Amino acid sequence: MRIRVLGSYGARLPGYHTSSLLIDGRMLLDAGTVTAALNLEEQAAIDDVLLTHAHLDHMVDLAFLVDNVLTLRTSPIRIWAPEQVLDSLRRHLFNDAVWPDFSRIPGSDAPALRFCPLPADKAVAIGNCLVEWRRTEHPVFTAGYLLRGRSGSILFSGDTAATEDIWHLGRECGDLAMAFVEVSFPDRLGDLARASGHLTPAGVAGELEKLARPEVPVMLFHVKPQFLGEVEQEIKALGDERLRLLEGGEVFDIADRARAAR
Ligand SMILES: [Zn+2]
Ligand SMILES: [Zn+2]
After folding, report:
1. CATH code, 31
2. Partners of 178 in beta bridges
3. What would the mean pLDDT of 28-42 be, rounded to a whole number?
4. How many angstroms separate the alpha carbon of residue 83 from the centre of ligand 2?
């Protein structure tokens, strides 16, 4: 599994882009930054988009992606998420008011995108992965994901405050190779983090105890860039060497990492 980081922050400023991972060149995990990071050919190659939730910073580029590749593809882009997330997209984005309903154009028999609900507690094959999700703690319905690839698995927390089920899924996964965990605010803004359904570095430390996989590298994403310096200092002060901040443009080859770990 090859992971290319298109965006890794929780807000937008020059040089800081909102969350999106490109997996094996054909699947997106969240769509906060796509069209500014990929050329048109790369955009047209995306068959599947997996969304954690319908907050703007995780799905806004879906609107521009589908519009860009409309005439370049012969099959719809499949949008995968729990039904509650898809319902929000249908009602609030692709509603023929804010943006066209691309699930019905150019024609309902050959649409530009297709909504594909993900069942609870059942793994679904998407691209090269087997995908499972669990609900996390966030003001809107949000999923964290486990992606099982042929050469190893990754866990992606989604946006969340303190939670349980997604860590259980990661704890039980024998070949877990990497965890992507959100951290948004510095510890002094803990009340704001809790109220908005996010974590601070101290919160991350508590969540990783629940994950209980001390051998697994942890990539932290979704920092609000205006607090980056503070959050970096607090992460360093935790003294946990497997923790580091995710950067846009990074590429991870899970096969290589799994080999290196042996
Ligand atoms: Zn977010
Ligand atoms: Zn959110």
Report:
1. 3.60.15.10
2. 154
3. 98
4. 17
Could you say which ligand is closest to the alpha carbon of residue 223? 1
The model carries a pTM of: 0.95
CA atoms of 73 and 57, how far apart (whole Å): 25
Give the count of beta carbons closer than 10 Å to the beta carbon of residue 131. 21
CA distance 125 to 148: 9
Nearest-angstrom CA–CA distance, 33 and 38: 9
Domain containing 196: what range? 2-261
- Residue 256: per-residue pLDDT: 52
Count H helices, E strands: the chain?
8, 16
Domain count of the chain?
1
DSSP-based three-state secondary structure for 37: coil
CA angle 120, 125, 128 (to 5 degrees): 140
Q: Cα of 159 to ligand 2 centre, how many Å?
A: 5
Let me know if 97 is exposed, middle or buried by CB neighbors in 10 A (0-12, 13-18, 19+): exposed
